[in-house]
Automatic annotation (TrEMBL):
One of its GO terms (cellular component) is plasma membrane. This is Puromycin resistance protein pur8. It comes from the Bacteria. One of its GO terms (molecular function) is transmembrane transporter activity. Keywords: Cell membrane, Membrane, Transmembrane, Transmembrane helix, Transport. InterPro entries: MFS, MFS_dom, MFS_trans_sf, Sugar_transporter_CS. Its main location: membrane.
């Protein structure tokens, strides 16, 4: 009897489309993350050309993280309610326009505003892309693979940004560190239209305006307060803005416990495992942003590397991560996420402690390279499971909010971490300069050593967080491990 075989190609096409969608969404995550660091190496040239003050120079980095982190939760709900694909495409267009504005900026203020606009549109892009990934890969080994790839791209984006920024600054112009985003945006728009399927939360939905205002202002005040710590932890401005941020966030939590359709349903963060994953993502964000920024300074100022060579010299961490991820992805269903979540920060802390031994007359191959390699092994152990844990068990209607929380944790952690590390750097460098005013490079390396030591301590705290929060059998922590792939729900 004749039987039609026509359904099979449709399944194959759907299967292939999912993996193309993963490529598009991963590209989005790459450009969002690398833009947090791509301008770091370009800052000296940009400061000279535009006449930036030291304060404006810091805000070129901080404005992006501040706008990104403060608006992520609102962006996540917009994605849930308005449509994730639609939000993704609008975010792409806006991000590209802001990048062009920054690339042609004629003053320091214009550049800072452009970076803030980039962060605002990234706050639409990031949760939309992660939510799309969540509803596209729902079960089984494919979900593990997809999240491992996505998490690795997110984790290595900072290092790739340093490399690309160094190449563009040295061989083209610092403005191309912003203009290069146009190519990513075009690829994302075309890929999004072709391969990404629309999805949104069901039913009638209302925006939680009170929650949106309080969390945005609260996170903004908190990050700004920490950015003032460089001028003294005891200053009235520093204490005042940090206290204001904490107060507004407390009001936000109160609002979320009362409204019918909260911006961030408290059930998303009160889950022990997901809450622990968010805290660890904040630690990862602080270390990846802070450590890469001061590593770039050490490579260029102390070791006198050119911008491109400095970017290239930071690449071993990324290479090690890429080598480790395939092996760890296969290992994850066998041992579960808990050993990786505890062991990863401990290994990363060893690498950071190694980097804290930098000296003015030190050598890259003995003082820097081993630390980067060890740090890469530790980070790979975190990148494979952390995104998955942050979204495990999330209801489809909460996918955007949970995705936003995962990204916001990393961005706010990065913004606060960079501010704290900057304050520690300034204090250690000033103390060394006071002891020996003639030893300028020694004061720099004293500051860098303090930053790397603090980052190592943060990683040790991450291991403690994992031990306390990431508890249970692997089947409980990741219930989809070992299941057959389920149908795609979009």
């Amino acid at each position: 009897m004749y039987r039609s075989s026509s359904p099979a190609p449709a399944v194959d096409v759907l299967h292939a489309k999912r993996w193309w969608a993963l490529g598009v969404l991963s590209l989005t995550q790459l450009v969002v993350v690398l833009d947090g660091t791509i301008v770091n190496i370009a800052l000296p040239q940009a400061q000279l050309e535009l006449g930036l003050s030291d304060g404006q120079r810091q805000w070129v980095v901080t404005a992006y993280a501040l706008a990104f982190g403060a608006l992520l939760l609102l962006g996540g709900r917009i994605a849930d309610y308005w449509g994730r694909k639609r939000t993704f495409l609008v975010g792409m267009l806006g991000f590209g326009a802001a990048s062009v504005f920054g690339g042609v900026a004629q003053s320091g203020m214009e550049l800072v505003i452009a970076r803030g606009l980039q962060g605002a549109f990234a706050a639409l892009l990031a949760p939309a892309s992660l939510a799309l990934l969540t509803v596209t890969f729902t079960h089984g080994r494919e979900r593990n693979t997809a999240f491992a790839i996505f998490g690795t791209v997110a984790g290595t984006g900072a290092a790739i940004g340093l490399l690309l920024g160094g190449a563009l600054t040295e061989f083209a112009d610092w403005r191309w560190c912003l203009l290069v985003n146009v190519f990513f945006v075009l690829a994302g728009l075309i890929g999004g239209l072709l391969f990404v399927t629309e999805s949104k939360a069901p039913g009638e939905n209302r925006y939680d305006l009170g929650g949106a205002i309080t969390v945005t202002l609260g996170l903004g005040a908190l990050v700004y307060g920490f950015s003032l710590a460089e001028h003294g932890w005891g200053s009235l401005d520093t204490i005042g803005f940090i206290a204001l941020g904490v107060l507004l966030l407390a009001v936000f939590v109160f609002i979320e416990s009362r409204v019918a359709q909260p911006l961030l349903p408290l059930r998303v963060v009160l889950n022990r495992v997901r809450g622990g994953a968010y805290l660890i993502q904040a630690v990862i964000g602080s270390v990846m942003v802070g450590a890469t920024v001061y590593l770039a300074f050490h490579l260029q100022i102390v070791l006198a590397f050119s911008p491109f060579v400095a970017g290239l010299a930071s690449l071993p961490m990324t290479v090690v991560i890429m080598i480790c991820v395939p092996f760890l992805t296969k290992l994850l269903p066998v041992i579960g996420p808990r050993p990786m979540m505890i062991g990863g920060p401990l290994i990363a802390a060893v690498g950071l402690f190694w980097l804290s031994g930098v000296t003015p007359g030190g050598d890259y191959f003995t003082q820097v390279l081993p630390g980067l390699a060890i740090l890469g092994v530790g980070m790979a152990n975190l990148f494979v499971p952390v995104q998955n844990l942050a979204l495990t068990g999330v209801a489809p209607e909460d996918a955007g909010a949970a995705s936003a929380m995962a990204n916001s944790a990393g961005q706010i952690g990065g913004g606060i971490g960079l501010s704290v590390f900057t304050a520690l750097y300034a204090s250690a460098a000033a103390a060394e300069a006071e002891a020996d005013p003639a030893a300028l490079l020694a004061s720099f390396t004293a500051g860098y050593s303090a930053v790397f030591t603090a980052a190592a301590i943060a990683m040790l705290a991450g291991a403690v967080i994992a031990a306390v929060f990431i508890r249970g059998r692997k089947e409980e922590l990741m219930p989809h491990v070992g299941e057959a792939p389920a149908a795609v729900h979009v």
